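Bumping with the actual sequence this time:
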Amino acid sequence: MGPRSRAGGLVAALQKVSTEFAALWERHEVAKRFEDHKTLIHPELGAIELDCQVLFTEDQSQALLVLTAPPAYRGPREVAATRRAGARALR
């Protein structure tokens, strides 16, 4: 994120070689998604539904991905199963 990131370098390079890309980029028609929903597939537990938020630093040079259980999460039983599966994987 940001002009000093790898993505920023790629954008700068594309702007130099493509007037079409530069014009499209200048229009700023790209929306930032700060919230999303993810489904992770665990090898033992199957699908795990999570809410996902991306938090950016002010200059957008860093991002933090935060995954949380959605309000409809089925509860502690799934959390306990996830812990047991993780513990088995570490043995």
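The tokens above came from a reply further down the thread. The beta strands are 35-42, 46-56, 63-68.
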